[in-house]
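ok so i was messing around last nite and threw this chain in just to see what happens. nothing serious, just curious
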Amino acid sequence: KGVCPLCGKEHSPKFHCLVQRTYRIDPSENGGEETATTKVVRVFCENNYRIRKRTGEKKQYTLTILPGFLIPYSTVPVDPVHKAIDNYITNPGLTEVRAALKMGFLSTASFRLFYSRVCRRLEQWTNCLATIIISL
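result:
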């Protein structure tokens, strides 16, 4: 038994179900198909469910566990996002439009969203890596 990630109490969440997630892929990798699917695990916290039923409080009682190659609330896997952002940062001639197209988007708004997330976390990642290197 461990600590529940949903309520913080000492019990393990229960397996709830497998749910299907669809994500974009390179059509050349899947016989011309532009999407693929995978099954992901959803867990259930009985404590939060009981509280929500009893009081009406908006307690999260399920949690979907994604594999490392998927991004929450996105159909684009991690690798194309990393490659597009890396190309945008290292190639001064690459425009936001071309970077968005590399990710599989037709709009630059999605690229800007992912890029802003990276920019917000870049200092934290650099500090974390520096701390790890110094401790070695």
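not much to say yet. The radius of gyration is 19 Å.
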